Amino acid sequence: xxxxxxxxxxxxxxxxxxxxxxxxxxxxxxxxxxxxxxxxxxxxxxxxxxxxxxxxxxxxxxxxxxxxxxxxxxxxxxxxxxxxxxxxxxxxxxxxxxxxxxxxxxxxxxxxxxxxxxxxxxxxxxxxxxxxxxxxxxxxxxxxxxxxxxxxxxxxxxxxxxxxxxxxxxxxxxxxxxxxxxxxxxxxxxxxxxxxxxxxxxxxxxxxxxxxxxxxxxxxxxxxxxxxxxxxxxxxxxxxxxxxxxxxxxxxxxxxxxxxxxxxxxxxxxxxxxxxxxxxxxxxxxxxxxxxxxxxxxxxxxxxxxxxxxxxxxxxxxxxxxxxxxxxxxxxxxxxxxxxxxxxxxxxxxxxxxxxxxxxxxxxxxxxxxxxxxxxxxxxxxxxxxxxxxxxxxxxxxxxxxxxxxxxxxxxxxxxxxxxxxxxxx
Length: 426
Fold this sequence. Notes:
Strand 2, helix 2 and strand 3 form a beta-alpha-beta unit. The chain folds into two domains: 170 residues, no CATH class; 211 residues, Rossmann fold (3-Layer(aba) Sandwich), CATH 3.40.50.11440. With 426 residues, it is of the alpha/beta class. It is globular, with a radius of gyration of 22 Å. Helix 1 packs across helix 2 and helix 6 crosses helix 8. The longest helix is centred in the middle third of the chain and has 15 residues. The protein is built from 14 helices and 15 strands. It is 30% helix and 21% strand.
């Protein structure tokens, strides 16, 4: 006999919005401020790295970047830059960016994918500084990356241009040694040391920084000269923190996540969003949200079976586990020195059984009065499904709007829940 579950409402969150309406024009305008024509000569080669994150408009941003470089007479090419992702192979990494529309045919330039690196320097800690062999051979490197809070590390610089220089362009070899070093030294200490070497030795002529708004859209595109990387990225990180999408409530008994994947976050689901940045299975005083339990319903197609982050949840279903590429997941979690991120939660035949089991572990609250929130993923949080437990709070807040409900949680005949996904409006 099925457990009594609370009825649910579909609600819309209203976030403040800053949006780039003409992405191509914004890229061109930003890059023109770097005066690259004074450095890049006709015929010069320029490496443009592309990472594994599902950045909004990434194909258009990269196409606009290479087109601008071509307008200077340069010969740009693209380098997949994603540490150990894509199974840690050159072919796998090329396939990852191709899934975002970044192909030779679409970009009009060559894609040079290799896992080979050059050791260009050594930090004061004795750490070898690895850099993609093809990028190092180029006359110039233009770093492109999204600035946002890192899912594990804390500092003035977290995920962005610096991380692209270290982890992305460091490839598997660099990512592995840097993550190991972070076990003994601070993240910021390693970032500063390696970045200093890369900026000195690897012909970096600038960076194109992207900040996304709360709706997973391009909110800002800014070109940054190399000498300003640290200070400006620190400022952009503060903007990214303010724009980070949030769950609608600070305390949740059960968070149901429709899908996780490397295109969503380095940890599959953004640990900053779900309150698991400092502890894989419990919120700390530094987290802004506390989820007692998390249940994962599936993997994104773009993650290609890499289930890094599944270990941050306590419950999942059989179809999710059946879709895991364990080799890719093992490589990624070991490279990131985060083996617990690949550990398997309790597995149930279907969503309903997993949800009912989870609700038996959330304390004294009865299942029918439990606080449940279902999200599509941690990038798309504008529309979510929540249990009626939150109705009073919803009605008291201007930033929350009821779209439909109350209704029973929509399970199909197999006991699986319907996805939250619906094109948001704002």
